[in-house]
Amino acid sequence: MTSNKLLAQAQAVCSKRGVRFTTAREQVFVLLAEYEGAIGAYDLLEKLQSIDPAAKPATIYRALDFLSKQGFVHKIESINAFVLCHHFGDCNHPVQLLICDSCGHVEEIQSNNLDLALKTMADASRFTITHQIVEAHGSCQNCN
């Protein structure tokens, strides 16, 4: 899906939820939509500064926080980077990421079996899962 279509979809979601999709948030969203794979906050800041020279680290972090809360992006904790979610209509879906350590490619997958197994184990421990991101590192088919 093109970045323009993704942006229109995100704008519609924000409108429906009654949240402000500011210019800075839109710019960061588009940068993420146009970027292949995961990107760190400071690399995003560098790209944003080519559009808005006045952008500061706080600009990026506020935008990423908003985008994350809306379910538009996922933070990859193990590499401290962000990736756009391409099915953000369901912002509470379980997230499973395959991360290539060679080329940096990130693929989001959804395995109901993995989700069910994790929930079953959590229930057995009387643990309530409120947010789930499973990160798996290895090599993609291009790097194998």
Number of strands: 5
Strand order in the sheet with the most strands: 4-3-5
CATH topology of the largest domain: Arc Repressor Mutant, subunit A
Written as H for each helix and E for each strand, in order along the chain, the element string is HHHHEEEEHE
Instruction: Give the helix/strand class.
Output: alpha+beta
What is the residue-averaged pLDDT?
92
Radius of gyration: 16 Å
The N- and C-terminal alpha carbons lie at a distance of 27 Å
Overall, the morphology is globular
- How large is the count of helical segments? 5
Q: Report on the biggest sheet.
A: 3 strands, mixed
Structural domain tally: 2
How would you explain this protein's 3D organization?
With 144 residues, the chain is α+β, with helices and mostly antiparallel strands. It folds into 2 domains: 3-84, Arc Repressor Mutant, subunit A, CATH 1.10.10; 95-138, Dna Ligase, domain 1, CATH 3.30.1490. Helix content is 44%, strand content 17%. The protein contains 5 helices and 5 strands, in the order ααααββββαβ. The strands form 2 sheets. Strands 4-3-5 form a 3-stranded mixed sheet, with no helix packed on it. A two-stranded antiparallel sheet has the order 1-2. β1 and β2 form a beta hairpin. The longest helix is centred in the first third of the chain and has 15 residues, at 3-17. The chain is globular, with a radius of gyration of 16 Å.
